[in-house]
Amino acid sequence: MKKKKVNSWLSYTGSGIIVALLFILWETGARLYDKSYILPSPTEIFLKLWELHDILFFVHLPATLNIILIGLGISVVSGVGLAVWMNQSQVIERSFFPLIITSQTIPIIALAPIFVLWFGYSIWSKVAVTVLITFFPITVSTFDGLRSVSREYEELLKTMGASSKQIFMKVKVPSALPYFYSGMKVAVTMSVIGAAIGEWLGANAGLGYFSRRMMTQMDGAGVFAPIVLLSLLGILLFLVIKLLEKTTTTKWSDKE
Amino acid sequence: MVKTNNNNPKSGSQLHFQQVSFHYGQESSSIFQQLNVDICKGEFVSLLGPSGSGKSTFFRLATGLENPAGGHISINQKEEKNRLGKVGYMPQNDLLLPWRTVLENGVLPLEIKGVRKKDARKQVISHLEKFGLAGTEHKYPHELSGGMRQRVSFLRAMLSGNDILLLDEPFSALDSMTRFSMQEWLLEQWSTWQKTLIFITHDIEEALFLSDRVLLFTEPPIENKLEEVIISLSRPRDTNTRSAPEFMALKQDLLNKMTSKVQL
């Protein structure tokens, strides 16, 4: 146990070294190339971030976060709902599952302009892209989680006289939780992408919109600065899910 | 002594199969045909037989997970159409919920019956010591040994509050030393709680050591009645019982009966 922990810390320092090396390479490369509108150096990006922090943190970051949270909220409610429904009825599963898979074969980026057509520059065109991207991992993983419950457990509870609602709450929900969280981890990182794509196509605020506007002004560092923020936002959301997972599924999960 | 060919439940009867017929699905061959079984209050009965001989089907019928195609099943001399929740069941693999502690696992049948959380916890805690589980209440199943997990599983079945407990090969996954001590432990519990125990096993010595009566399951379909062997060994039984001459004689008798019935 203890040894394993030490090892995982070692692997983190390993990835830390690699990241540091990449930054040094980037910094020296960018300085030698010396065309900051094409390849800004990390220090330039950082300075830009500092220079624009007011507008980035208090205008564009909240706008993007808003889209992400609304989109994720819709995906969680509808995705979990659909997963539960599909788990309860085979007819529903047969009718919806192929549709869900098909929805993933459509290139969502290509759909985004249609959403702008439908919802205009309002927040909903961006939310729609986010939902379309995050709905899939949440639904499929929750559905798999509900299906993972072995029949033995269900039957054991039946012999105790449990109702199907009790079986659902006491066995299915706890069994499905780890699956749900792994779906959520994928979904939150993709939600950042979804929101940014939505904003590129039509928005008047948000990190994706800001990045694109800086591109038209040939401001390399200005393009990168909001991207750094987007990536940090994705990491932060991921950590929030991880924390939630830890507090709700406790110690038993380190069984295997 | 009890006769299984009697069609009416006796006054002390706790579980009674009357003319029970059963087969899985529509077309598959029949497993029981007009089977009569009578199990008395406080009895320890083992169901002995090779796998696929219908022992588990008997349990599924008794717990109410399956219903007979013909005949009746009575509990406490009352015909019960819905038996779910009326018979305690201890499964083969302990089937403790891995995300629940010992205490939370024990509370499960009480929770389902709607007992208040505080009272349920109190009840479980009051039993832990007698079950040799003192101090484990906040441990998770994966932190316990196999024998301890089975004890928690037995406690859970007991707390279902039913007089009949069905135990489905509970010790088959344990090593032989642990199995021996668990068998003795089970007999102690049985005499303490005065439950009716029905025990599935395919281990002849285990069946002999534990039971008042052994019912032999052979190839299905099983018609009318099961062959039974009455185990007259005195109680309490301990390690010495295992090497007593009567024990050996009964074992030989059972072996002969089984091998003559089971076609290889």
Q: SSE layout and pairings?
A:
The complex is a heterodimer of chains A (256) and B (264).
Chain A: H1 2-33, H2 42-51, H3 53-88, H4 90-105, H5 108-119, H6 123-147, H7 151-159, H8 164-201, H9 207-216, H10 220-249
Chain B: E1 13-22, E2 32-40, E3 44-48, H1 55-63, E4 70-75, E5 78-79, E6 88-90, H2 102-113, H3 117-128, H4 146-158, E7 164-168, H5 176-193, E8 196-201, H6 204-210, E9 213-216, E10 222-223, E11 227-230, H7 245-261
Parallel strand pairs in B: 2-10, 3-8, 3-9, 6-7, 7-8
Antiparallel strand pairs in B: 1-2, 1-4, 4-5, 9-11
Helix pairs in contact in B: 2-3, 2-4, 6-7
Fold and architecture overview:
The complex is a heterodimer of chains A (256) and B (264). Chain A is mainly α and 256 residues long. Chain A folds into two domains: 34 residues; 214 residues, MetI-like fold (Orthogonal Bundle), CATH 1.10.3720.10. Helices cover 85% and strands 0% of the residues of chain A. Chain A contains ten helices and no strands. The mean pLDDT of chain A is 89. Chain B contains seven helices and eleven strands. In chain B, the strands form two sheets. Chain B has a six-stranded mixed sheet, sandwiched between helices. In chain B, strands 5-4-1-2-10 form a five-stranded mixed sheet, with no helix packed on it. Chain B has a domain of 153 residues: Rossmann fold, CATH 3.40.50. The relative contact order of chain B is 0.18. Chain B has 264 residues and is of the alpha/beta class. In chain B, helix 2 crosses helix 3 and helix 6 packs across helix 7. In chain B, strand 4 and strand 5 form a beta hairpin. The chains are: A mainly alpha (256), B alpha/beta (264). At the A-B interface, helix 7 and helix 8 of A face helix 2 of B.
